[in-house]
Amino acid sequence: MATSTSVIPNSVIPTTVNPDLQKERDAASFNSEEFAAWWAGGEEVLKFNRGVRKYMEKDIDFSEMLQLQNKTHEEIIESSTRGAIDGAKKLRRLQEERNPGGDDYWPNMYESQVMWGLVPGGNPFGVMYVMLVKALQAQCTPEQYAEFGKRLERFEICGTYAQTELGHGTYLRGLETRADFDRETDEFVLNTPKISSYKWWPGGLGHSSNHCLVMAQLYIDNKCKGPHMFFIQVRDEETHEPLPGVHIGDIGKKMGFIGVNNGFLGLKNVRIPRTRMLMRHAQVKADGSYVSSPINVLTYFAMVRTRCVISKSNAVMLAAAATIATRYSAVRRQSPINPNEREPQIIDHVTQQMKLFPEIATSVAYRQASNYLWNLYDVTIKDIENGKYERLPELHSLSCALKVTCSTDSTTGVEKLRLACGGHGYLTSSNMSNIYVAATAACTYEGENTVLLLQIGRFLMKTWRAALTGAPLPPTVRYLAEVQKNPEFGSWTGSWENMVKAMQYAAANRTRLAFKSFSNRLSRGETEANAANHTGIEFTQAAELHGRAFVFSAFTEVVTGPKSKTRSANFNRVLENLLELYLVKETLNQMGHLLRFINLTDTDLTRLQDRLETVLTKLRPDAVAIVDGFDFSDLQLNSTLGSYDGNAYERIFDAALKNPMNQKSVPKSFHEVLKPFMKSNI
Ligand SMILES: Cc1cc2nc3c(=O)[nH]c(=O)nc-3n(C[C@H](O)[C@H](O)[C@H](O)COP(=O)(O)OP(=O)(O)OC[C@H]3O[C@@H](n4cnc5c(N)ncnc54)[C@H](O)[C@@H]3O)c2cc1C
C-alpha cells in the first residue's frame, strides 16, 4: 500500500543518462576504455572479466540489493548465503561450458574484482576460498589435500580458518586451544579449556561451515610444540547439527559483514585422526616423535597471501567509493560560485576536487603497488617450492607494509568521499557506510595494523644492521644501504624521481633514528624486548614511511617506465596527472617527517601548493572518465548516488519509497505509543 499521495505519482528512474554526466564523458581528453583495459590487466582480460560479470549478474535484483540494510540479521545471512552460492554455481557452470577441467573461472574468479560487491552483506565463504583452501594447499601433504582439501575446493564440504580466540588474536603463542597427541589411538584430542580459549571471529563459522582449520597448541606427552593446524569436522554433513563435543554459534551483529556470520567454537575432547594435523612441513609420527618445520614462518604463510589480497581489494574499495562520489559530484549542482550565475556541478568547487581526486589517485597508486607485491609473491612461492626461503622476510614485511598503508588510507579515503556526498552520503542507500565498514575491518584482520608496523620496524632494524655490515639487501630495502653510503640528500628539485628519493630518504633516516634509540636502550641495559617496546612509536613511524616510499617508487615506475610506450599519449597524460597528484599530496601529508631531514624552502612549499592546485584543474575534465575506467557495474556499486546513468535523485527517492517503513501510511508505534501518550495528558 502506498504511504500517502505523492507529488510525483510513482518513482520513475529515467532510462537516459543524466545530461551533466553525459557531457563529462563527451568532454574527456582520453578514452576511458583504454583506462579500463589497463586497470584490468589488458584488453583480453577486460573482455573476459566483463563477459563473466554479465553472466554473474544475470537474475540479480538490483532494487533488492539496495534494501540490504532494511533486512534482519537472519535475512541478511540468508541472502548472503544465496548470493555466494549463486556466484559459485554460475562460475562452475561457466567452467563446465568454457573450459572443462580448468580452474580459471572456478574457483579462481571467486576472489577477483568481478565478484566484488555482488554479495553486499559479505560472502560467508570468502574466508574459505581466500584463506582456507590456500592454507591447505600450502600446508597439506599431497595425500591430505586429496582426502579433504579437494573436497573443500569442490565445495562438497565447507569450512573456515579458525585462529583467533576470545582471549588472543595477535599473540599466537598465547593461543589456548590445545591438541594432545594420544599414542594409544593415534589421534589428537582437542580442547578449548577456558572461555578465553573459544575460537572467536572466523568468517562463516557461525552457521555456514561444517569443517574448519583450527590453530591449536600441539602437545606431545604434555610438552608444548607451539601452534599447529588441525582440520576438524564441526557439524554433521547431512543434518548440519554440531558434532558431539562441539559448541558452535554466531558472535552476533557487527559493524559490517553481517552476512559473513563470524562464529565461535568451543571443543571438548574432540578426537581426530593423527593424519588431520597438516603435515607438509612439521610432522607428528605414529610413535609420537616430532619433526619440526624447516622454517617456522611457513605456518603463517597463508596470512601473507591474504595480506596481498587485502592490499588489492582495499584499493578496489577506495576506487568504488571514488566512483560513487565523483559521479554524484558531477550530477549535483549547488551554490553559485559567482552571484547570479547558475549553480555549478559541485565537482567545480576546488575544495570538492581536493576531496575526490586525491582518493582516485591513491586507489590507482595502491593497485599498482599491489601488482608488484603479487609478482614478488609468485616468485617467492616458486622459491619455496625449491626449498629457497631467502626472499620470505622481504615478502612478509612488504605485504605487511602495503596491507597497513592501503587499509589505513582506503578507510580514511572512503570516509572523505562519503563526506563529499553531503547529507545523502549518510544514507545507507549510498552504500558508503557498507564500503567503509568493509575497508576499516581490514585494519584489524590478518594482523592488526599497529602490530604489523612493529613487525616491519623490527625487520627494518635487522636490515639497517645488516646494511652497516655491508651485507647485500633485497631490492625493496636497498635504498637503506644507499642512504648509509650517501648520507647527504642533495638538493630538492621537486622532480618525481627526486620526490621518490625524498620519501626513501625520510624512511631511511626515520629507520636510522629508531635504530639509534633502540641501540641506546640496549646499551643502557634494557632487554631487547623492552627496548623494542619503548622504541615502538619510532618503529611504527619508520615502518609507515617505508610502506609509503615503496608505493612512491612502484607507482612512479609504472607510469614512467618502459610500459608507458605501449599506451596512447592522451592516456599517459592522465596517468602522469594522477602520479603528480599522488606524489604531491602525499609529500605534503608527510611534510613533518620530510622537513626533519631535508631542506625545503618556503618557495619550495609554495610551489608544491601551486602544483597541487594545477593538477586538480588538469584532472577536472577527466575525472568521470577515469572512474568509469574502474569499470564497476551498477550492481557492484549498489549505490543510489553512483550509478552509471547519474539519476541520483530518482534512485534515492525510489529506494526511500521501497523502505519497509513506507509500506503503511501510519506506523504501529503511533497507535501503541505516541497517540496514547498525547491523549493521556501525563
Ligand atoms: C571482520 C573481521 C573478520 C575476522 N575474521 C577472522 C577469521 O576468519 N579467522 C580468524 O581466526 N580471525 C578472524 N578475525 C580476527 C582478527 O584476525 C583479529 O581480531 C586480529 O588479528 C587482531 O587481533 P586481536 O583482536 O587479538 O586484537 P588485539 O591484539 O587485542 O588488539 C587490541 C589493541 O592492542 C594492541 N596490541 C596488541 N598486541 C600488541 C603488541 N604486541 N604491541 C603493541 N600493541 C599491541 C593493538 O595494536 C590494538 O590497539 C577477524 C576480525 C574481524 C574484525
UniProtKB/TrEMBL annotation:
<feature type="domain" description="Acyl-coenzyme A oxidase N-terminal">
    <location>
        <begin position="31"/>
        <end position="158"/>
    </location>
</feature>
<dbReference type="Pfam" id="PF14749">
    <property type="entry name" value="Acyl-CoA_ox_N"/>
</dbReference>
<feature type="domain" description="Acyl-CoA oxidase C-alpha1">
    <location>
        <begin position="300"/>
        <end position="461"/>
    </location>
</feature>
<dbReference type="InterPro" id="IPR037069">
    <property type="entry name" value="AcylCoA_DH/ox_N_sf"/>
</dbReference>
<feature type="binding site">
    <location>
        <position position="203"/>
    </location>
    <ligand>
        <name>FAD</name>
    </ligand>
</feature>
<feature type="active site" description="Proton acceptor">
    <location>
        <position position="446"/>
    </location>
</feature>
<dbReference type="GO" id="GO:0005777">
    <property type="term" value="C:peroxisome"/>
</dbReference>
<dbReference type="InterPro" id="IPR055060">
    <property type="entry name" value="ACOX_C_alpha1"/>
</dbReference>
<dbReference type="GO" id="GO:0005504">
    <property type="term" value="F:fatty acid binding"/>
</dbReference>
<dbReference type="InterPro" id="IPR009100">
    <property type="entry name" value="AcylCoA_DH/oxidase_NM_dom_sf"/>
</dbReference>
<keyword id="KW-0276">Fatty acid metabolism</keyword>
<dbReference type="GO" id="GO:0033540">
    <property type="term" value="P:fatty acid beta-oxidation using acyl-CoA oxidase"/>
</dbReference>
<dbReference type="InterPro" id="IPR036250">
    <property type="entry name" value="AcylCo_DH-like_C"/>
</dbReference>
<feature type="binding site">
    <location>
        <position position="164"/>
    </location>
    <ligand>
        <name>FAD</name>
    </ligand>
</feature>
<dbReference type="InterPro" id="IPR002655">
    <property type="entry name" value="Acyl-CoA_oxidase_C"/>
</dbReference>
<keyword id="KW-0560">Oxidoreductase</keyword>
<comment type="similarity">
    <text>Belongs to the acyl-CoA oxidase family.</text>
</comment>
<dbReference type="GO" id="GO:0071949">
    <property type="term" value="F:FAD binding"/>
</dbReference>
<keyword id="KW-0576">Peroxisome</keyword>
<keyword id="KW-0443">Lipid metabolism</keyword>
<dbReference type="GO" id="GO:0003997">
    <property type="term" value="F:acyl-CoA oxidase activity"/>
</dbReference>
<keyword id="KW-0285">Flavoprotein</keyword>
<dbReference type="InterPro" id="IPR012258">
    <property type="entry name" value="Acyl-CoA_oxidase"/>
</dbReference>
<keyword id="KW-0274">FAD</keyword>
<dbReference type="InterPro" id="IPR046373">
    <property type="entry name" value="Acyl-CoA_Oxase/DH_mid-dom_sf"/>
</dbReference>
<dbReference type="GO" id="GO:0055088">
    <property type="term" value="P:lipid homeostasis"/>
</dbReference>
<dbReference type="Pfam" id="PF22924">
    <property type="entry name" value="ACOX_C_alpha1"/>
</dbReference>
<dbReference type="InterPro" id="IPR029320">
    <property type="entry name" value="Acyl-CoA_ox_N"/>
</dbReference>
<comment type="pathway">
    <text>Lipid metabolism; peroxisomal fatty acid beta-oxidation.</text>
</comment>
<protein>
    <recommendedName>
        <fullName>Acyl-coenzyme A oxidase</fullName>
    </recommendedName>
</protein>
<dbReference type="Pfam" id="PF01756">
    <property type="entry name" value="ACOX"/>
</dbReference>
<feature type="domain" description="Acyl-CoA oxidase C-terminal">
    <location>
        <begin position="496"/>
        <end position="679"/>
    </location>
</feature>
